[in-house]
């Protein structure tokens, strides 16, 4: 009956009609439950009790005494005795199932230990299992042969698991499990396959927290699977019929580390399937408990009506013999006592009742949506907590609520009160009771439940499709209405995520404020600190490519990071607890990260041998190594203190106390208003992705983003060079000092600095992988959109019928890829990139980089800094830089707060105290990316540390590991100084300032420049050789494979860049080639001839160009002029410099070039340079004069060569026995010591640049002796 249903926030519908004066006679003909109000409007106690207990009219006679516990007990005993007896008999025949004993209570279904192959362990009772072997399988101890049955599996991990049914004849081995034999059927959502000896595509991909229903219908001989209550379709039909004793067993196979929770019916199913029975029958007491809770629900409904402000209800209240308040306590107490008494007699039923009817009762009393019925739930808690026997019931309730958070899915129609919100809201209110918080804290599963409360189920492709049914992106040809529809859906989902995050914070506040009842007394925050420490200890190694088994779900790490970030950025919102906010000069509403002025950090966090920290690698190496090689004295008892912004230049300093505020605390209200009204239109053009509005923080810290494109990506990262220790001997930090920790705060108090330390580690192991995945989907979206537009263009060109058919098929594929990518990108924006999170991340970057700069002044402390500080800083910086739409305009992104980041990367990308080459690579790659953009390059030019350190550091960092990023940096700094600038104008990335500084660095340190030039020659020679070999391989096979084409294009680009750098060197430092020994000039000439030979001698010119051309590349990237132009520039630079040095002794460029090989071949190569179509790639006609100069140079070479030939033919030259046997061009005027082998000084000098052994006998060279000098 409708009246028996539990109602939320008020009485049941039947009761509402009754109390509003419906005719009792009319109602009595329709229902056994009648009005407790007679024709005169009087309401008696008897009629009220009949309604509460669901009894027929006039079944309770006149009462002579008050309503008390004895009366309630009597009613329950007399009227519910039959019901109780009937419910006990409901577990009658369940034909078609056979359960074998397992040593536990009768009819309990679990795993058959004899059937286990591999190693399956019980992580948590009753059946949370984990595979501890490479592949493990097991069957349950129950089989079915008739009827419709099901069991449910909650996924704790989402890897390879085969769930299904198997007969006892199915063999389990180390490699075969469920579904790998006859009469064995399984579903695997990781591989999206169904298995019965062979695999077929089936179902959907699953995610952590999914509830997989495994159903078997032996009446129709079918097996099907359900994901979160939604059918995945019929999996198998026509399965073989079985008989008693040889039926189908529930069976699972798990890969190593995979975990799942099996429910055969010991708890109510999350998603019961109509018509299917659980293998384990519900306890007999379940129906009786449900009826008692319905009575309590109706009693609460009476109280709700009593409090309502309805006029007709007020009239009835004046005429009652007794108010609901007077009967609520004795009746509710009697119901609770009876319920707990019955459950106490059957402890096996408590868990089922708690997870089933009692949880449903609590949720419906409290309400699924706001506003919640806090008073109604409080009345229930007051009554139950009077009985100590209720503690076990509440332990199961807390467990059930935590599990609900794990499995809850966001549903668009339920937003914003969707997902885990109802469970979190109920748990937060329950745990405000000190008694229940203590009960939860004492539970051995406290931390396990806490993690489940913080977990959030991520959607798969199908979930996103239901959450965002309409998809739109800028430039799409979809229905115009899709734009507004997607805006509405993403807004609703954003609000839902915000509500869940708010409840996560509420729960963490409760734990922080909780003071455990232990001796000695603890301070607030101690429980939360212990939880964090154990969580970090549990997740050691979570950042590896293959994380160890047992680490936390990524959603837990993300949720905890979000909570801590909000606390540090927006404030805790809970008063003076722990004294955290007492140092704020702006009031309690200013978060830790946004407070200006004095700052401090407990360096003991790095120096203590804590189990959860000592496994983290430090900048100087492992903690165990540092503790032995660089032991710490009394530093642990000190805090390092500094003034915000003390590491920045005075001109560029921006702090929270300065007039100009950092980006995280600035205001761009006008732009923000415009963008927030139509966020889709202001999505960055680079990504073309949809952007949803995000919840904003309080008004004291507001920031706005502007439209722009920062959708670039970082290239592959190589390494930095090793520098001497002397380069990093720093002066003490100004405005910084060490102070005893006790002078600030007790060491027992949880400090905000500790939370910052945890925040950075959580970002590293939890957030960074998500942002990496988001970047992948953004790039994939761009590529898919480009493919879609290209296909549409080809369709519009009107191809033939067959081509049109294939193009339309390809278009459908590209369109689906775009839609999926847009949904994925939108979800990552919703879940990770709300405005307040971006502001908090920006402030975190500011705080961290200043801390690292301060610590870098103290060698010992800097080496103890964990690596994840630096990794999180760099990754977070670039995430903010590339966010779409941008967090703030790129012109102020660095200037207003992050100038220190420039200082840090240019100072430490070759810091020898950083032991990891990968970390130095990371800093160098950051420079390589940033100098591409005019706004960021300006920040480098205005940074004193960059101007002072970067030129020489870049030259020294050009080594075998890091030459690619260094080349890119040098190229971008030096663009515009060479021959053949872009047809479309000079690059905005060129820097006159750094060109001058690089030239000065090369001149002032000849040794550094000489080593750099030698590596530059070797690298360019290697890249051109690799390019030539790759092209020749493709020509021989006469096919262009995609991989080979990409390789050729990349190597060619690198060769062009290296040639441009070499051109810059000849322009800025020509004396390095023209003065002194001619080694550099000869090497340069040989390299030019070498490149010309490879570029101009390709047999198939069309094939050569095809090997360079890739999809989406501009014309500049696919022509030979890209490498020929810097060669022309090099030659002209040398000839012009030679003319200016006529008055001084210098090397003869013409004679060196003339000595290079066959004259006819040389003339042919140079003629190719003269005849090349420069007009196709160059701007204007200024190049014509340069080409004329090149032609004059070629004529000089030809004249010189002709003159030498005439001398030889005229017999003017004599054969000299002292000629160098290596080059046959110079006299052997030097010898190796001690082996005394002779050669020319030029060849010996060149050889020793790369090898210190004699090239005749391979002996170690100790010295080189000039023969002429010895003779003198």
UniProtKB/TrEMBL annotation:
One of its GO terms (biological process) is protein ubiquitination. InterPro entries: B30.2/SPRY, B30.2/SPRY_sf, ConA-like_dom_sf, RKP_N, RNF123/RKP/RSPRY1, SPRY_dom, SPRY_RNF123, TPR_RNF123/RKP. Residues 700-709 have a biased composition (Polar residues). It is an enzyme of class 2 (transferase). Residues 686-719 are annotated as: Disordered. The keyword Nucleotidyltransferase does not apply. Signal peptide: none annotated. SUPFAM superfamilies: Concanavalin A-like lectins/glucanases, RING/U-box. GO terms for molecular function: ubiquitin-ubiquitin ligase activity; zinc ion binding. Keywords: Metal-binding, Transferase, Ubl conjugation pathway, Zinc, Zinc-finger. It catalyses: S-ubiquitinyl-[E2 ubiquitin-conjugating enzyme]-L-cysteine + [acceptor protein]-L-lysine = [E2 ubiquitin-conjugating enzyme]-L-cysteine + N(6)-ubiquitinyl-[acceptor protein]-L-lysine. Residues 76-269 form the B30.2/SPRY domain. GO terms for cellular component: cytoplasm; ubiquitin ligase complex. Its EC number is 2.3.2.27. Pfam families: RKP_N, SPRY, TPR_RNF123, Ufd2P_core. PANTHER family: E3 UBIQUITIN-PROTEIN LIGASE RNF123, RING FINGER AND SRY DOMAIN-CONTAINING. This is RING-type E3 ubiquitin transferase.
């Amino acid at each position: 009956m409708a009246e028996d249903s539990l109602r939320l926030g008020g009485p049941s519908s039947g009761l509402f009609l009754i109390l509003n004066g419906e005719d009792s006679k009319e109602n009595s003909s329709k229902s056994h439950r009648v009005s407790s109000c007679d024709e005169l409007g009087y309401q008696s106690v008897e009629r009220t009790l009949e309604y509460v207990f669901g009894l027929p009219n006039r079944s309770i006679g006149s009462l002579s005494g008050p309503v008390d516990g004895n009366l309630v007990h009597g009613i329950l005993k007399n009227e519910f005795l039959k019901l109780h007896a009937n419910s006990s008999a409901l577990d009658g025949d369940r034909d078609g199932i056979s359960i074998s004993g397992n040593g536990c209570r009768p009819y309990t279904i679990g795993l058959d230990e004899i059937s286990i192959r591999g190693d399956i362990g019980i992580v948590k009772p009753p059946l949370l299992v984990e595979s501890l072997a490479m592949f493990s399988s097991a069957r349950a101890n129950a089989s079915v042969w008739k009827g419709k049955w099901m069991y449910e599996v909650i996924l704790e991990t989402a890897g390879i698991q085969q769930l299904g049914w198997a007969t006892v004849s199915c063999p389990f081995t180390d490699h075969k499990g469920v579904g790998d034999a006859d009469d064995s059927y399984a579903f695997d959502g990781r591989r999206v396959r169904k298995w019965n000896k062979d695999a077929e595509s089936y179902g959907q991909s699953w995610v952590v927290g999914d509830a997989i229903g495994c159903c078997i219908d032996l009446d129709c001989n079918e097996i099907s699977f359900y994901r979160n209550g939604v059918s995945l379709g019929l999996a198998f039909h026509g399965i073989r019929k079985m008989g008693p004793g040889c039926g189908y067993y529930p069976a699972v196979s798990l890969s190593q580390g995979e975990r799942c929770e099996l429910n055969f019916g010991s708890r109510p199913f999350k998603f019961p399937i109509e018509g299917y029975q659980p293998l384990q029958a519900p306890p007999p007491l379940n129906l009786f408990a449900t009826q008692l809770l319905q009575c309590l629900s109706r009693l609460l409904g009476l109280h709700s009506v009593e409090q309502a402000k309805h006029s007709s209800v007020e009239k009835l209240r004046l005429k009652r013999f007794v108010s609901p308040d007077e009967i609520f306590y004795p009746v509710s107490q009697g119901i609770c006592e009876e319920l707990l008494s019955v459950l106490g007699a059957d402890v096996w039923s408590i868990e089922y009742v708690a997870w089933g009817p009692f949880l449903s009762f609590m949720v419906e009393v409290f309400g699924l949506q706001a506003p919640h019925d806090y008073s109604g739930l409080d009345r229930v808690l007051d009554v139950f907590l009077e009985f100590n026997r209720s503690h076990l019931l509440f332990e199961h309730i807390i467990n059930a609520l935590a599990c609900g958070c794990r499995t809850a899915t966001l549903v668009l129609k339920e937003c914003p009160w969707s997902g885990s919100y109802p469970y979190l809201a109920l748990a937060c209110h329950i745990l405000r009771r000190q008694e229940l918080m203590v009960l939860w804290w004492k539970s051995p599963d406290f931390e396990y439940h806490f993690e489940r409360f913080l977990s959030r189920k991520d959607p798969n492709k199908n979930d996103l499709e239901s959450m965002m049914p309409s998809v739109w992106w800028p430039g799409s040809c979809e229905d115009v209405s899709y734009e507004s529809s997607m805006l509405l859906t993403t807004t609703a989902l954003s609000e839902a995520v915000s509500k869940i995050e708010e409840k996560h914070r509420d729960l963490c506040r409760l734990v922080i404020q909780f003071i455990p009842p232990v001796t000695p007394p603890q301070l607030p925050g101690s429980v939360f600190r212990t939880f964090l420490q154990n969580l970090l200890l549990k997740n050691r190694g979570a950042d590896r490519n293959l994380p160890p088994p047992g680490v936390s779900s990524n959603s837990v790490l993300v949720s905890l990071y979000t909570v801590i970030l909000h606390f540090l950025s927006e404030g805790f919102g809970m008063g003076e607890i722990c004294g955290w906010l007492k140092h704020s000069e702006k009031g309690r509403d200013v978060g830790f990260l946004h407070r200006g002025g004095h700052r401090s950090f407990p360096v003991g966090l790095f120096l203590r041998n804590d189990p959860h920290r000592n496994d983290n690698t430090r900048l100087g190496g492992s903690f165990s190594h540092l503790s032995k090689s660089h032991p710490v004295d009394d530093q642990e008892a000190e805090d390092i203190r500094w003034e915000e912004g003390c590491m920045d230049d005075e001109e560029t300093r921006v702090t929270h106390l300065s007039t100009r505020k950092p980006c995280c605390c600035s205001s761009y209200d006008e732009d923000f208003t415009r963008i927030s009204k139509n966020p889709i239109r202001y999505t960055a053009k680079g990504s073309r992705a949809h952007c949803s509005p995000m919840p904003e923080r309080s008004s004291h810290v507001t920031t706005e983003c502007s439209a722009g494109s920062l959708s670039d990506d970082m290239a592959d990262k190589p390494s930095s060079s090793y520098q001497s220790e002397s380069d990093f001997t720093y002066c003490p930090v100004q405005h910084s000092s060490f102070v005893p920790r006790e002078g600030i705060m007790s060491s027992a108090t949880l400090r905000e600095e500790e939370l910052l330390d945890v925040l950075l580690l959580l970002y590293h192991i939890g957030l960074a992988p998500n942002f990496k995945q988001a970047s992948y989907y953004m790039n994939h979206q761009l590529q898919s959109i480009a493919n879609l537009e290209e296909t549409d263009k080809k369709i519009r060109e009107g191809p033939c019928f067959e081509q049109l058919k294939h193009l339309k098929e390809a278009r459908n594929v590209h369109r689906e890829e775009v839609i999926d990518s847009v949904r994925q990108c939108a979800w990552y924006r919703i879940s990770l990139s709300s405005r307040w999170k971006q502001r908090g991340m920006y402030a975190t970057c500011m705080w961290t980089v200043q801390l690292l700069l301060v610590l870098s002044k103290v060698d010992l402390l800097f080496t103890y800094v964990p690596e994840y500080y630096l990794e999180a800083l760099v990754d977070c910086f670039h995430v903010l830089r590339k966010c779409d739409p941008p967090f703030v305009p790129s012109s102020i992104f660095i200037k207003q707060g992050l100038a220190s980041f420039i200082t840090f990367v240019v100072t430490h990308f070759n810091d020898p105290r950083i032991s990891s080459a990968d970390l130095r690579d990371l800093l160098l790659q950051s420079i390589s990316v940033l100098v591409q953009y005019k706004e960021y390059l300006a920040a480098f030019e205005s940074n004193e540390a960059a101007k002072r350190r970067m030129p020489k550091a870049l030259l020294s960092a050009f080594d075998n590991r890091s030459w690619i990023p260094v080349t890119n940096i040098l190229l971008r700094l030096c663009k515009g100084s060479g021959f053949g600038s872009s047809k479309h104008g000079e690059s905005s990335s060129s820097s006159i300032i750094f060109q001058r500084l690089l030239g000065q660095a090369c001149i002032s340190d000849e040794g550094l420049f000489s080593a750099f030039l030698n590596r530059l020659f070797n690298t360019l020679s290697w890249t051109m050789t690799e390019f030539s070999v790759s092209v020749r391989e493709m020509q021989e096979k006469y096919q262009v494979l995609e991989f080979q084409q990409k390789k050729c294009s990349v190597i060619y680009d690198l060769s062009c860049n290296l040639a441009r750098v070499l051109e810059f060197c000849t322009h800025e430092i020509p004396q390095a080639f023209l003065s002194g020994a001619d080694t550099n000039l000869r090497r340069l000439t040989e390299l030019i001839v070498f490149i010309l030979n490879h570029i101009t001698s390709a047999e198939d010119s069309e094939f050569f160009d095809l090997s360079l051309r890739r999809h989406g590349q501009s014309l500049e990237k696919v022509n030979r002029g890209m490498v020929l132009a810097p060669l022309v520039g090099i030659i002209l630079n040398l000839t012009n410099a030679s003319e200016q040095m006529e008055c001084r002794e210098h090397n003869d460029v013409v004679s060196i070039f003339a000595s290079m090989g066959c004259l006819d071949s040389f003339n042919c190569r140079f003629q190719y340079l003269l005849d090349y179509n420069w007009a196709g790639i160059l701007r204007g006609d200024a190049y014509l004069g340069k080409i004329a100069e090149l032609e004059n140079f070629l004529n000089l070479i030809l004249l010189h060569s002709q003159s030498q030939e005439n001398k030889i033919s005229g017999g003017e030259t004599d054969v000299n026995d002292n000629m160098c046997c290596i080059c046959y061009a110079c006299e052997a005027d030097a010898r190796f010591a001690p082996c005394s082998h002779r050669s020319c000084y030029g060849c010996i000098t060149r050889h020793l640049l790369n090898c210190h052994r004699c090239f005749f006998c391979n002996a170690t060279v100790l010295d080189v002796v000039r023969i002429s000098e010895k003779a003198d």
